[in-house]
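Researcher: Structure prediction, please.
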Amino acid sequence: MKENPYDNETFFEKYRHFPRSEKGLTTAGEWPALQKLLPDFTGKRVLDLGCGFGWHCQYAAQNGAKNILGIDISSKMLEIARQKNAYSNVIYRQTAIEDYEFPENAFDIVISSLAFHYIEDFSGLYQKIYRCLVKGGNFVFSVEHPVFRQKGNKTGGIMRPTAPNNTGRLIIISRKESAKPFFWVKMSLNIIIL
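Model: Predicted structure follows.
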């Protein structure tokens, strides 16, 4: 089942006033670690999965991306993205991540921040992302630590890609809270896709 709490009026009204919602990436706890892992965006085609208010689309545009597609299931999130982060090379499209077509070899960079904990079938999604990336492309994402999810195991467990033989880069940033402030655990793996 696809989750979309962001179009609930009560939830969205509170969420839109979080510092990260109003001020962008500089107030997002995971941003310093994630930013260090991002590739060069110059001249690249970028897909932002679960783009929300479009802050990562803004970053890609400001750092030379050729074109950027931000997709999100929430009409309310995209309405704010179009207001706050409108660029001539950014297109926002309303669709669930799982429903996007993922055209073959269409993107140099796929990025997603704190959206995959809503996905039921990450393995299937990973195969689609693999297909839409050009050879040598980058897939960079962060996930919410399962401790923050009442439903538990959506982000837990081991992710085993099943795409054709190739080498890729998988970057995971996972959040855990042992005490305030938040501590960020980052792990960068070079993987061989079997």
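Model: The two ends are 29 Å apart (CA to CA).
Researcher: Thanks, that helps.
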